[in-house]
Amino acid sequence: MFWGVFSGGSQGLNGISDVSAVNGLVAIDKDPTNVNGKNLVADIVKDANNPASDYSIVNDLQALSTGSYGQASETARTSLTKKLIGMQDQKTGLWNGFDKVDYTGRAILALSMNTNQPGAADALNTAVKAVSNHLYQENGGFADSSNTMFGAENAYNDVTMTNALASAGVNVYVPLKEKTDYVAPVQRVLEQHPVSAGNSAMLIQQATWTFEQARFTRNGGKGSIFAFNQTDAAKPGEIVSIKAAAITKKQSIINDPQATAAAKSDALNLVDQILATYVSKLSADSTSSAAIADRAAGVTAFNHVTVSHAAPATPVTPPTVTNNNVTVVNNPASSSSASSSSAATSTSSSSSVPISTPTVSGKPVKKASHRSIVYALTTVKLYRSSNFTKSNLTKTYKKRARINRPMFLVISQQTNKQGHAIYRVKDMNLGKTGYTLSGSKYFAHAYYSAKVTRIKVINPKGINEYGKVNLTSKKRHVKKNASLSVRKIVNYGLSNRMQLTNGRYITANKKLILATKIKKSSQNTRPSTPTATTTGTSTSTPPTNSGSTATTTTTTSSKPTATTGTTTTTNNSPIIIHLGATPTLPVAPTNPVTPSNDAKTITTTISIHADEATIASGSIKVNSGASAFDALQAFAQQQGLALTYKGSGATTYVTGINGYNAGPAGTMTGWLYSVNGTEPGSSMGAYTLKDGDSISMTYNK
């Protein structure tokens, strides 16, 4: 790279340009107008008034846009923006040059820092569409097919353009526009391993800030991460970042094998206090630089939280069933007379089913939701704000045939002032962002995730088979109405792929294919454990190794210690585990709640989080070969949690824990689980645990 040419400076081939120096100094909160008595900004303003090259225009504009440096700087910014817009090709929407991809990317980045300048927003929107139409490649990269010498795809250009698009507000974690068979730009950058050892320092640094920019934009940040003086631009992203840091810290505390339970509790409470303090500070920040600084200070405070490793003074006693944010009422008919203590004895002579009532604090109005791609099943309306009024209506999407249904990226879910459950979404075709009613009545996942074994092509233009999961290395074209056999579903970012029985890959987009056969989950049953003699009746289904069913018994007795919940279990209705007020349970828990003496057991750690707090955490032993859901069932019984679920095996779906209830399967609300920090992409009932695995349950709504 010729630094003197690209920066407009005169430092020679090995010098550090004024532009790069300004960017770096401002990033570390240093003053670029006084560097050992030298004003770097003044030098850039001089060059901006008489740019040495086209590259000087974009680079000088970026440097001057990092802060407010006086009237001369602002005048130069306005002049440079006007020049840059005037250089845009009115036919293609791109910027011409010996490397069209590189210069267009740099121009988009510079304009994203100056959207308040006349004509900048329109030029930016035109450029983003042009990149998608002319430069975006099927593999997720960017290339100029008209330039055989400099137009070929390369890692530098992919990084530059991905960073630029993210700065312009584009979600680079998904394919651009409606090109669902294309690879997402971020995925393509990752595939090239730009930060691996052996790469040039320039590529490593550019890739690093590209990933940071992509994360920043996805978390709600506006504009470029280098526009440090933009009011509030970084606040949404920094709040998300500090919450993520808090969750990471909590997980490390929970997983500390040497810490006592009391020490863990104290440390977790301290993390919650720090989080509340810094979220409040961030909410009050008026500039990006202040938000960035407060987020960094909060993360540092998390890192200073330590956990005592002192051994307990007394032997650890076996866990008992205790109330964990749950009040147990033994007699619903006269709940006012029930004691608030979990060990209270029921005064009712006829034992009713104990009811678990959540007593946790009120749920927040807004909660981040797991991002996903959906399509509209019926007519939906998009509003510019969460207040659904006629004046706020921006677009109505009429009900369309399946192959033409509009697709949306779900950003979050909340409840608006009118009491409606709504999504914040982004139209994946038009790029519009807004709010709409949520729920399975209006939307469904746009990609298959079930165990599909055969599909039919419904896209009039057919689909392609590829040799690689990122849908590159095209093997053949398949016409409409063709039937294909599927081996498995493969998770790929926010979208899914299908691997055919011939080893090739196709899209799992429901607009293009139709599942004609779905594999039913197999059930290996074993006889249930006999229960204690009762005077009531019980209906049970034999439990399975996948934790698909639970056997419980209705007991009528004058002794409250013999009272348990009542459930008639089927595969189609919710299975509710009601835990009594005392730790005595007359029914043997289902596999693998209590491992047998002759069975090999494994240990897994489980933590359950909701409303930014930890509901329960600890470890549990289960039989070898148990599923993640088996472990959750066992843990719920151990901790005294109210757990509800539907389905069995691969269709198991957690519907609620301690009153935090999920939406129906297929929606973007409810309980998410991860194992060792990674989301497996399959049902808990189908995931087989290994010894030492750590399960995290997080409530998203």
TrEMBL record:
Superkingdom: Bacteria
Domain DUF5776: 447-513
Gene3D superfamilies hit by this protein: 2.170.130.30
Feature: compositional bias, Low complexity: 311-361, 527-574
Domain (Transcobalamin-like C-terminal) ranges: 625-701
InterPro entries registered for this protein in UniProt: DUF5776, Transcobalamin-like_C
Residue ranges of the region described as Disordered: 311-364, 518-574
Pfam families attached to this UniProt entry: DUF4430, DUF5776
Name of the featured protein: DUF4430 domain-containing protein
Record lineage: Bacteria, Bacillati, Bacillota, Bacilli, Lactobacillales
